[in-house]
Write a structure and sequence with these properties.
With 303 residues, the chain is α/β, with parallel strands linked by helices. It is 36% helix and 29% strand. Helix 4 crosses helix 5.
């Protein structure tokens, strides 16, 4: 597997405090990598180091297979970013704002229309930015980061402060970029529900440490399914199932079955009824992704 971004033992210390400690990011080519963690976990510090805006205390950063320390200029020519709020000139139009950047990048004038089309702002190209909604300003910021046709796009909390329609606009835009333009995207957020709808892979950071890194499917599997049975004697039923080699648990006078297939649940229920257990209720319970995330970040376990 080809990794567009790879860090080894990446560390940033401020005095005696570690903002980031021994981070080993691996971002595969063409993926939308969700960089997830509570506020203050070290996401922005990591992103600033990836963009060369902050010098690491220790460790290495490799982007496009090159060492950031040695090939910083060449690497950053192929990286687009939107960190915190986009900067713009409110008295200028969307097109005029992009023109100031186009001259710096040295790309053709046609590229302005192209990026405005990508972010769905072409119809307001000649409107002054001071009249834009927050969502439109964020999309203009993304348009600016796409001007030089980057291979890697880094977005730090791009949906922060947006209303639901603005969030959906940004989400749909981000999901289009890898398939239509072959980009790899790193997007940070403190909301697992948001990352779950965008990302294909995910890294979870807590108190400066990377505690999880895998596909989005892998983190979904951690949201455990449970079947809860209310019986006349849960303890006795639990011992009975154990004697049959069936794993179960008892909590709050309920019998819990974990990750069983539907047909197996039906067999277990029939087995209990056939052995004179009275079953009053059978319910499905599922731990939400948010609960899983909260559990991971509060327990600080490497999963």
């Amino acid at each position: 597997m080809e990794f567009i971004v790879e860090t080894k033992k990446l560390t940033k210390r401020f005095g005696n405090e570690y903002a980031v400690a021994d981070i080993a990011l691996q971002i595969p080519k063409g993926e939308i990598y969700g960089f997830l963690g509570p506020n203050g976990a070290g996401k922005t510090t990591t992103i600033r180091m990836l963009l060369g805006l902050m010098r690491p205390t220790n460790g290495s950063i490799s982007i496009f297979g090159k060492d950031l320390k040695k090939d910083r200029i060449d690497i950053l020519k192929k990286v687009g970013s939107l960190v915190e709020n986009p900067s713009y000139y409110p008295h200028l139009t969307a097109k005029e704002n992009l023109e100031t950047l186009r001259k710096i990048y040295g790309v053709s004038k046609n590229r302005i229309d192209e990026v405005l089309d990508i972010v769905r702002l072409k119809d307001v190209a000649d409107k002054k930015v001071k009249g834009f909604s927050l969502g439109m300003k964020q999309r203009l910021g993304i348009a600016a980061s796409l001007l030089h046709n980057p291979e890697l796009l880094i977005l730090d909390e791009p949906t922060n402060g947006l209303d639901p329609s603005g969030i959906i606009e940004i989400r749909n835009l981000i999901k289009r970029l890898p398939t239509e333009f072959g980009m790899t995207i790193l997007i940070s957020s403190h909301l697992l529900s948001e990352i779950d709808q965008i990302a294909t892979s995910v890294g979870v950071i807590s108190k400066g440490q990377l505690i999880f890194q895998d596909s989005i499917e892998a983190i979904r599997k951690l949201a455990q399914q449970k079947i809860s049975l209310k019986l006349d004697d849960s303890e006795k039923a639990w011992r009975f199932l154990l004697s049959k080699g069936i794993k179960a648990d008892v909590q709050n006078s309920r019998l819990l079955l974990f990750d069983q297939k539907d047909k197996d649940i039906a067999k277990i229920v029939k087995m209990l009824v056939d052995n004179d257990f009275l079953i009053y209720r059978v319910e499905e319970e599922k731990q939400s992704l948010e609960d899983t995330f909260l559990q991971m970040t509060t327990e600080e376990k490497v999963i």
